[in-house]
Design goal:
It is a single chain. This protein is α+β, with helices and mostly antiparallel strands and 86 residues long. It is built from two helices and five strands; from the N terminus they run ββββαβα. It is flat and about 35 Å long.
């Protein structure tokens, strides 16, 4: 089973309330189907945008062969840069 780490839309359907979970999910599943594990969440409607990623869980899935979507890869790198003390 191929596993992908990608965004899963949650909440209302309106454009003003888009919220996303970062999940590990089988590649054959659709975006909104059951996931294997929740790895974090992203809320772009808040100012500033709210981003919570459980990096240890992401690393666990990557070691098992999961692949991140381009969007999740970008969010993870932004979160890692923000966590580095200046």
């Amino acid at each position: 089973m191929e596993v992908s780490i990608r965004l899963q839309k949650i909440g209302k359907i309106t454009k003003l309330s888009n919220c996303f979970r970062i999940v590990a999910i089988s590649k054959s599943q659709s975006r909104d189907s059951a996931n294997l594990e929740i790895l974090g969440h992203y809320n772009p409607t808040k100012k500033p945008a709210e981003l919570v990623i459980r990096h240890e869980k992401v690393e666990k899935w990557l070691k098992q062969g999961a692949r991140m979507s381009d969007t999740v890869k970008s969010l993870v790198s932004k979160d890692k840069k923000a966590a580095v003390p200046k």
